[in-house]
Amino acid sequence: MQIQVLKSKIHRVKVTGADLNYIGSITIDETLLEASNIIEGEKVSIVNINNGERFETYAIKGQRNSGEITLNGPAARRVQKEDIIIIISYATLEFEEAKTFKPWIIFPNENDNSLT
């Protein structure tokens, strides 16, 4: 039997932009992607702390150490610049493997989205 478990979480980052005219996705600072073990193109769930919105999109790589968190395309309608969000990805694992799996969870600085 397989189950879905938390794989990666970027907990409480500030939205730096919303670009309605982009094709779609969420642009995430490359440093945050690497620290959370999320890869470009990976499906992610977004939870908006400010308004309760929950939706899914995919990750694209932003400039390293820029602090960028930009929602693109239709997702831009679900956030405002400076909203605080949580970015989550899941993995499908065998039940026994899932019991010992340890997710990558990071807690960036909410002021500038840095890892310091």
Molecular structure report:
This protein is mostly beta strands and 116 residues long. The protein has one domain (2-96): Beta Barrel (Barwin-like endoglucanases), CATH 2.40.40. 11% of the residues lie in helices and 47% in strands. It contains two helices and eight strands. It has helices spanning 30-36, 95-100, and strands spanning 2-14, 17-19, 25-29, 43-48, 54-62, 69-72, 84-94, 104-106. Strands 2-6-3-5-4-7-1-8 form an eight-stranded mixed beta sheet. A hairpin with a 5-residue loop joins strand 4 and strand 5 (54-62). The longest helix has 7 residues, at 30-36. It is globular and about 40 Å long. One of its GO terms (molecular function) is aspartate 1-decarboxylase activity. It is an enzyme of class 4 (lyase).
Question: How is the secondary structure organized here?
Answer:
Blueprint: E1 2-14, E2 17-19, E3 25-29, H1 30-36, E4 43-48, E5 54-62, E6 69-72, E7 84-94, H2 95-100, E8 104-106
Parallel strand pairs: 1-8, 2-6, 3-5
Antiparallel strand pairs: 1-7, 3-6, 4-5, 4-7
Helix and strand pattern: EEEHEEEEHE
Overall structural domain count: 1
Major beta-sheet overview = 8 strands, mixed
Low-confidence stretches: none
CATH architecture: Beta Barrel
Number of DSSP E strands? 8
Q: Number of helical runs?
A: 2
Descriptive terms for the model:
mainly beta, eight-stranded mixed β-sheet, globular
Short description:
One of its GO terms (biological process) is alanine biosynthetic process. The protein has 116 residues and is mainly β.
